[in-house]
Design goal:
By secondary structure, this protein is mostly helical. Helix 3 packs antiparallel against helix 4. The longest helix is centred in the middle third of the chain and has 12 residues. It binds iron/sulfur cluster.
């Protein structure tokens, strides 16, 4: 989500910007999207570790990572060198 002032957060639920990644006036959106913080938070969500996927996610009851098709998550993890996690997700029931 990009707020009217350019602040970027992971999520439409994050009205107080607890998961703030930066501001598009300082950093291109593509760099925030591909940056180390969001990468780490994505992988944490794929692990089901919402305590490490952004401060706001810790107490969120939506946990939207499951909305992403599993094969897309597996492909992302493989591309990011997270093969063991990708394999675990692929074989999960
Ligand atoms: S876990 Fe909740 S707060 Fe975190 S990105 Fe998903 S929906 Fe948003």
């Amino acid at each position: 989500m990009v707020q009217v002032n350019g602040d970027v957060t992971t999520c439409c639920l994050d009205e107080h910007l607890e998961n703030r990644l930066g501001n598009v006036k300082d950093t291109p959106l593509a760099a925030l999207w591909a940056g180390p913080t969001l990468r780490a938070w994505r992988i944490a969500q794929a692990r089901g570790d919402f305590a490490r996927s952004g401060p706001y996610c810790t107490r969120c009851s939506w946990r939207s990572a499951g909305a992403m098709p599993r094969e897309a998550v597996v492909r992302y993890l493989e591309a990011e060198g997270e093969g063991a996690l990708a394999a675990r997700l692929r074989s999960a029931p």
